[in-house]
Amino acid sequence: MQLEVVKRLCNNILDRKPVLIAGFVRLIFHDCVGGCNGCVDLNLEDSNGDQPNAGLGSSIAVLNRRHDELRQTVNISKADFWATCAVEALEKARFLATNDTSKSLNIPMLYGRADCRPMLTVADRFPDPHAGLNKTLEWCDNTFNFNSTWCVAILGAHTLGQARPSASGFRGPWVADARHLDNAYFQDLRDKRWLQVNRRTVTDPRWQFEAEGPSVFMMLNADMCLFRDIQPDSAGRVVDPLDATPKSSTKDDVDTFADNNEEWIRVFKAAFKSMIETLPDGAAPLQSI
């Protein structure tokens, strides 16, 4: 396989449309739920009426169109192409944060992901943005076999991109520099003052935490629970004042990553590599090339 050709194509896409940096990273996260296979159902709906894959259509359309062109000269599955472009997106975000090529992630890639049969993943296998810590950690363990530290680390990818009302119903970026792969997410989670607000309606709520100040930065319950032991109700609302809420069992991981960017990068890199090597049941093992 001509890997440099594949990587160069991924980078050409990202150079032309940097907004896809976050899109490619989010896409591979969703693709690898149930096993990385290049198969994401945009119409998937969970028991709450949420569509976890909403907003991924533009990333899928770009990647699939370029994959069709690539396959004329390079034998690579769609699933492998998606994974390669996600890694290149992280490298791009890392460079934007550091302006230093020596700080690259250098994630070693394995190949051999087979392309999908449609609709293999049910919606309720996706993380619940309304949930608290126990459900979030349970989801990480059941889906990717992650311990709590790796679960905290992988959620740090929320430092990239933003939530959009037209997709999830939530609104706003997590951090100020939403194309930088760094530990700003953990610093803001720990250090900013947060207030929970409902960004939709009483009958279809989207409770999110927003930082005090003129700019709208947000955290989901699945983010906030990593630092505060919030107890959201079934709609996602947290009644108790945040400042009076005890710290979570994962609070020390948040502190470590907030204080040490390189340590977060180290753990995140390991968790991300493991995630993109998650395969559907019965799939052939991946191989180095």
Q: In short, what is this structure?
A:
By secondary structure, the chain is mainly alpha-helical. It is 41% helix and 6% strand.
Describe the structure.
There is one protein chain. The chain has 289 residues and is mainly alpha-helical. Helix content is 41%, strand content 6%. It has helices at 3-16, 20-31, 57-70, 78-98, 133-144, 148-155, 184-191, 221-224, 251-259, 261-276, and strands at 162-163, 172-173, 194-198, 207-211, 218-219. Strands 3-4-5 form a three-stranded antiparallel β-sheet. The protein has a two-stranded antiparallel ribbon with strand order 1-2. It starts with a helix and ends in a 13-residue tail after the last helix.
* Rg from Cα: 18 Å
Helix content: 40-55%
Protein structure class = mainly alpha
Distance between termini? 8 Å
Poorly predicted ranges (pLDDT <50, ≥5 residues)? none
Count all strands and give the number.
5
Q: How many helices?
A: 10
Overall shape = globular
SS strand fraction? 5-15%
Specify the biggest β-sheet: 3 strands, antiparallel
Rounded average pLDDT: 93
**Order of the strands making up the biggest sheet:** 3-4-5
Helix-strand string: HHHHHHEEHEEEHHH
List the helices and strands and how they pair.
Elements: H1 3-16, H2 20-31, H3 57-70, H4 78-98, H5 133-144, H6 148-155, E1 162-163, E2 172-173, H7 184-191, E3 194-198, E4 207-211, E5 218-219, H8 221-224, H9 251-259, H10 261-276
Antiparallel strand pairs: 1-2, 3-4, 4-5
Helix pairs in contact: 1-4, 2-4, 6-10, 7-9, 9-10
